């Protein structure tokens, strides 16, 4: 009886959060680092299925940088990154598109369905919803750097995403967009997730990665910072504390906050139920960034 009562208490406690997030969009970005650990992926997707079942509207956006690099190596191509973006020639684009849409996206959809959810992959092979433009970044002298077919998302098919979510189906999106000519563009998945969160008016944007959050010393997990402001993030990027793959993530987070996304979370996909802990508890896990 006590056991049953404690379970009921948990449900009652969760009610406030469930009510608060009902019908709200939450964008969940699964990084390539997390995707490399199948157990983490299963646990995270089980949380996504739970979120949808209690009335939230989760949208899954995924990367797969490590898998793309492995597939390139198998084809004898050396990956090259410019300011965190993969230089994408036509052959690289072909590989990235295949790995992200045919391999990773479809396997995430299958797994969500196995876990009892309903899900659909929205990509070039089904229904694309990401509209992009070529991205150019400046070098130290301000001249544009050639990144090949790399893009940024400037618009989405919101009507399609809304209809899918309203129908109780979880959309799963790889970070490939189409330009005005109908040609594919390779988009960094962190920036794609931030653009989708912005354009959908999402309540939250959650990055699931392979670290517990942002550290002040990247080799010392005890220096995890639970709460960061926009200003502090800028300082940590400028002094090199936030480095490597964390830079596009935090930059994308700042952009999303700037246009009205309430909160950003960077959490560890390896912690069991980290997503539910973040959404449905007072304490939260990982690092949250607020405006
Ligand atoms: N200050 C920091 N705190 C935590 N991780 C950091 C920091 N600076 C750099 N990193 C690195 O960023 C990585 C996460 O970025 P990335 O590998 O691109 O993840 P994902 O595949 O999830 O997008 C971590 O594994 C870590 O090595
Ligand atoms: C332009 C660009 O860099 N695109 C990324 C897309 C995948 C990605 O971002 O994956 P992660 O989330 O695992 O980093 C790439 O080709 O690696």
Automatic annotation (TrEMBL):
Pathway(s) of this molecule: Amino-acid biosynthesis; L-arginine biosynthesis; N(2)-acetyl-L-ornithine from L-glutamate: step 2/4
Instruction: Please verify whether the record's keywords include DNA-binding.
Output: no
Top-level division of the source organism's lineage = Bacteria
Q: Which UniProt keywords apply?
A: Amino-acid biosynthesis, Arginine biosynthesis, ATP-binding, Cytoplasm, Kinase, Nucleotide-binding, Transferase
Q: Where is this site: Transition state stabilizer?
A: 29, 249
Catalyses: N-acetyl-L-glutamate + ATP = N-acetyl-L-glutamyl 5-phosphate + ADP
Instruction: Mention any one GO cellular component term assigned to this protein in its UniProt record.
Output: cytoplasm
* GO biological processes: L-arginine biosynthetic process via ornithine
Residue ranges occupied by any Aspartate/glutamate/uridylate kinase domain in the UniProt entry: 25-268
Residue sites binding substrate per the record:
64-65, 86, 186
Q: Does the keyword Amino-acid biosynthesis apply?
A: yes
Give the Enzyme Commission number: 2.7.2.8
Q: Where in or outside the cell is it found?
A: Cytoplasm
Say which family it is in.
Answer: Belongs to the acetylglutamate kinase family. ArgB subfamily.
Tell me the function of this protein: Catalyzes the ATP-dependent phosphorylation of N-acetyl-L-glutamate.
Quote the NCBIfam families the UniProt record gives.
argB
Q: Which HAMAP family match?
A: ArgB
Q: What name appears for this protein in its UniProt entry?
A: Acetylglutamate kinase
Gene, per the UniProt record: argB
């Amino acid at each position: 009886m006590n056991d049953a009562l404690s379970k009921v208490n948990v449900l009652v406690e969760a009610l406030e959060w469930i009510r608060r997030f009902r019908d709200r969009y939450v964008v969940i970005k699964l990084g390539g680092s997390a995707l490399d650990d199948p157990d983490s992926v299963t646990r995270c997707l089980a949380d996504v299925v739970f979120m949808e079942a209690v009335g939230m509207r989760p949208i899954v956006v995924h990367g797969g940088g490590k898998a793309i690099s492995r597939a390139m190596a198998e084809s004898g191509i050396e990956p090259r990154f410019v300011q965190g973006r993969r230089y994408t020639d036509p052959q690289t684009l072909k590989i990235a598109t295949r790995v992200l849409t045919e391999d990773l996206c479809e396997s995430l959809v299958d797994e969500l369905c196995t876990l009892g959810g309903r899900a659909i992959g929205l990509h070039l092979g089904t229904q694309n919803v990401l509209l992009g433009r070529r991205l150019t970044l400046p070098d130290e002298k301000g001249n544009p750097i050639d990144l090949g077919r790399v893009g940024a998302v400037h618009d989405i098919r919101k009507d399609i995403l809304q209809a899918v979510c309203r129908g109780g189906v979880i959309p799963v999106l790889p970070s490939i967009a189409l330009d005005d000519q109908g040609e594919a563009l390779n988009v960094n998945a962190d920036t794609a997730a931030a653009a989708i969160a912005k354009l959908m008016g999402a309540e939250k944007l959650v990055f699931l990665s392979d670290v517990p959050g942002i550290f002040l010393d990247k080799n010392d997990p005890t220096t995890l910072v639970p709460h960061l402001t926009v200003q502090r993030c800028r300082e940590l990027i400028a002094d090199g504390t936030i480095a490597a793959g964390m830079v596009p993530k935090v930059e994308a987070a700042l952009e999303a906050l700037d246009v009205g996304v309430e909160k950003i979370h960077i959490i560890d996909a390896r912690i069991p139920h980290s997503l539910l802990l973040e959404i449905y508890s007072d304490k939260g896990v990982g690092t949250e960034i607020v405006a």
